[in-house]
Specification:
The structure holds two protein chains of two kinds.
Chain A lengths: L8 E8 L3 H7 L9 E9 L3 E8 L7 H7 L4 E6 L2 E7 L5 E3 L20 E6 L4 E4 L5 E3 L2
Chain B lengths: L11 H16 L12 E6 L4 H13 L3 E5 L13 H11 L2 E6 L4 H8 L4 E6 L5 H15 L5 E6 L6 H10 L5 E6 L8 H9 L5 E4 L11 E4 L10 H8 L6 H4 L7 E3 L20 H19 L6
Parallel strand pairs in B: 1-2, 1-3, 3-4, 5-6, 5-8, 6-7, 8-9
Helix pairs in contact in B: 1-5, 1-10, 2-10, 3-4, 5-6, 5-10
Classes of the chains: A mainly beta, B alpha/beta.
The structure holds zinc ion (ZN).
Chain lengths: 140, 306
């Protein structure tokens, strides 16, 4: 299967197979005017199967969202047909308005208009902690 | 010290400083009677807690300051949907320091992110209540003359009792502490305390189900209430609530210098006959609560006389 290479834009590679739709939604890529290619279940030497997303315009990607969904992703910035920058994503130290606290006793469940903030508590178990009530959330 | 949200925000040195100042106030109250003249404490109690509120207000008054505030969500704009966030920014214009109680966990932290004046957490749901922890530490220090080398029994609801969790954490920073945890199996301390505090720091502890078998070993007995709302059904509550009642009979085998603490209010877990025993410290503990709040308010306002 062939997908045109992009000339100016961004490629999200090495996405864990099956996670590309979540990334598409969480980054709100449907709101973009340009072409966006989602390529699923590509054979990968490293990982067996992977997904790839190509965005055909300059785009400033939220690395925290990617890091939280899948820290294996690599990001390539393409300009004039060449890869000018490669970024590795990491599990972010802090998530702002990405997770919502599920503790019914937490102030975030009643207070309107505040930032929902989680801090990385344990990278090994991918555990985040709500800064308000300190309830832990493990992410998949 | 800008805000006080979690008792563990305070270093051992800061706690020592507060306890020292509280002891100094107890010894010479007249020296401190005008220290907060012209200053205002706002007590924002989004849920009622009369004892805690009165303790804060009495503390500020004895320092020569003034108090304002509200004492339940019903009598405030909170029921009209005004947020914590807006309330503290408005009250922060009127008051120099805020003591805030709220049923939701994390509300005082949220307030501290927006407030122009220092916030003291006066209890946020089942989460933190730092001035209770300071009260308990001052009481132990005054009764025993030290905060280390003690065998401390906690009795009652150890699963949900936040005062117990905070005090276990705070005391774990002192030397030679040994805990005896007395509770029904259903209400034992949560795993995070067991793993992250007791086991990580190699603190000796044992868990037992009956007070009688251990009371003779204790230097401190910290009693707690078994709250009705912690139980899903009435039958469990009725079955368990009388299991851990301290009476004069059980006290016969206790040490002569045992100190009995309780955060109050009590239901029936300490027989009123125990009140006359000199080992009962819980009313002195309530009084200490006022003094430690005086020390805290002064310190947070930067008003310690040279
Ligand atoms: Zn929360």
């Amino acid at each position: 299967m062939n997908i045109d290479s992009i000339y100016n834009g961004i490629v999200l590679d090495h996405i864990t197979a099956g996670k590309s739709m979540q990334i598409y939604q969480d980054l709100s890529l449907d709101k973009l005017d340009c072409s966006v290619a989602i390529i699923k279940n590509v054979k990968s030497r490293k990982r067996g199967r992977k997904d790839i997303i190509k965005i055909d315009q300059e785009y400033s990607v939220n690395l925290d969202v990617l890091g939280y969904i899948d820290p294996e992703i690599t990001v390539s910035i393409i300009k004039d047909g060449k890869t000018i920058e490669k970024k590795k994503v990491e599990l972010p130290e802090q998530l702002v308005n990405i997770l919502k606290c599920k503790n019914p006793r937490c102030i975030t469940t009643t207070e309107q208009g505040i930032d929902h903030i989680f801090r990385l508590a344990d990278p090994a178990t991918r555990t985040y902690r709500c800064i308000y009530c300190e309830e832990d959330r493990k992410i998949k | 010290m800008r805000h006080l949200i979690d008792p563990m925000d305070l270093s051992v040195e800061e706690i020592d400083g507060l306890l020292k100042l509280a002891n100094e106030i107890i010894a010479h109250p007249e020296k401190y009677s005008e220290v907060c003249h012209g200053k205002k404490l706002a007590t924002l109690f989004f849920e009622p807690s009369t004892r805690t509120r009165l303790s804060f207000e009495a503390a500020m008054m004895e320092l020569g300051g003034n108090v304002l505030g509200f004492s339940s969500a019903d009598s405030s704009s909170a029921t009209k949907g005004e947020s914590v966030h807006d309330t503290v920014q408005v009250v922060g214009c009127y008051a120099d320091i805020i003591a805030m109680r709220h049923p939701k966990e994390g509300a005082p932290l949220l307030a501290s992110l927006k407030s122009p004046v220092p916030i003291i957490n006066a209890g946020d749901g089942g989460h933190y209540h730092p001035t209770q922890t300071l009260t308990d530490l001052l009481t132990i220090q005054r009764e025993k003359g030290k905060l280390g080398n003690l065998t401390i029994g906690f009795c009652g609801d150890l699963m949900f009792g936040r005062t117990v969790h905070s005090l276990i954490k705070a005391l774990s920073r002192y030397d030679n502490i040994r805990y005896i945890l007395i509770s029904p199996p259903e209400l034992r301390i949560p795993d995070y305390i067991r793993v992250e505090i007791l086991e990580k720091k190699n603190i000796p502890y044992m868990e037992v189900e009956s007070m009688e078998q251990v009371i003779s070993e204790l230097d401190i007995l910290y009693m707690t209430r078994v709250q009705r709302e912690r139980f899903f059904n009435e039958a469990d509550y009725v079955r368990l609530k009388d299991t851990y009642i301290l009476d004069t009979d059980k006290l016969k085998s206790a040490k002569s210098d045992l100190s009995i603490l309780h955060p109050l209010p009590r239901v029936n877990e300490i027989s009123t006959k125990v009140d006359d025993d000199p080992r009962a410290c819980y009313f002195r503990q309530a009084l200490n609560g006022k003094y430690v709040r005086m020390a805290l308010i002064m310190t947070m306002l930067g008003l310690i006389p040279g």
